[in-house]
Write a structure and sequence with these properties.
310 residues; alpha/beta; Rossmann fold; 7-stranded mixed beta sheet; 10 helices; 7 strands; 10% strand; binds iron/sulfur cluster; tRNA-cytidine(32) 2-sulfurtransferase; sulfurtransferase activity; cytoplasm
Length: 310
């Protein structure tokens, strides 16, 4: 069952008039997050003139924040694009299905609610006690892709942030034997959808703080009864520990994702090691016998982005 609703009010985000949301520190945080989203959009060519961006909103802090920031950025963007908020009601027990429509109405954004009982499918198919997330996400992905086509979306925006990307990198390295993270922009296997992650440069800490200040009507993410993946939990704890003990380390890892040097890894598919000879160009300098020089405070991602910058 689907419900399509056109906006009933202008879709500008107004910060509610409370003290905390008008405080200088909150306004600075909001500006910082908007700048980071603007940078990511420009760096990866995420949104173009005439795009229809379907923003997937689960009811968690990340997707609420993504929607707010995209709406605010659209007000000052040099291009025109449409935003459609989308929520998939998976019929999990206790899912408060009135919350998101009411929120979307209150901010006047065009939205679509899709109701599909994937909860039942997952419960029927997966034996009790086994983890349900992979089937659940596969089903959800299919429905999101189909809905994107139906609304005429040219981009699907997801609320994954910088720390999700780093967690995925370590998950793949520790448990999958791969150096692979979560891309800021990708095309789906069937080539029908382009997925973007505009929060790619935003830290989870900042998003948490922003979402608290905005007092979003957060919907708990454990309604399905599934536990968070134990390995992801472990990685998250490791990264949080690093972040508190070694400030700057997480920023540096995020920067590293943008500075890959194939000739200094070991993947023969990325770099032709077999044919390395004395005439091979040395791109990154030869430090065979020396320790690499590490710049102090490495990790800045500040890049000029012109008028996308708030
Ligand atoms: S936590 Fe629940 S809703 Fe989320 S992917 Fe896993 S099974 Fe699906």
């Amino acid at each position: 069952m689907e419900q399509v609703v056109a906006p009933s009010a202008p879709s500008a985000i107004e910060l509610p008039e409370t003290e905390s949301r008008l405080s200088n520190s909150f306004l600075r945080l909001r500006k910082h997050l908007m700048r980071k989203v603007g940078e990511a959009i420009v760096d990866y060519g995420m949104i173009e003139e005439g795009d229809v961006v379907m923003v997937c909103v689960s009811g968690g802090k990340d997707s609420f924040t993504l929607l707010s920031l995209l709406l605010a950025l659209r007000e000052r963007a040099p291009i025109d694009f449409r935003i459609v908020a989308m929520n998939l009601d998976q019929k999990q027990p206790g899912f408060p299905d009135h919350v998101l429509p009411a929120y979307f109405e209150s901010i006047g954004v065009e939205y679509r609610i899709v109701t599909e009982n994937t909860y039942k499918i997952v419960k029927d198919k997966i034996p009790e006690g086994k983890t349900t997330c992979s089937l659940c996400s596969r089903l959800r992905r299919g429905i999101i892709y189909r809905t994107a086509k139906e609304v005429g979306a040219t981009k699907i925006a997801l609320g994954h942030h910088r720390d999700d990307m780093i967690e995925t990198l370590f998950l793949n390295m520790f448990f999958g034997g791969k150096m692979k993270a979560m891309p800021p922009k990708l095309v789906s296997d069937d080539r029908q959808n382009v997925v973007i992650r505009p929060l790619a440069y935003c830290s989870e800490k900042d998003i948490e703080r922003f979402a608290r200040g905005m007092e979003y009507p957060i919907i708990p993410c454990n309604l399905c009864g599934s536990q968070e993946n134990a390995q992801r939990k472990q990685i998250k704890a490791m990264l949080r520990d690093w972040d508190s003990r070694f400030p700057g380390r997480i920023v540096s890892i995020a920067t590293a994702l943008k500075n890959v040097v194939p000739s200094h890894l070991a993947d023969g598919e990325l770099f032709d090691f077999r044919n390395v000879s004395r005439s091979t160009e040395v791109g990154e300098g030869d430090i065979v016998f020396d320790a690499p020089e590490l710049p102090v405070g490495a990790g800045s991602t500040d890049i000029p982005i012109g008028i996308w910058r708030p």
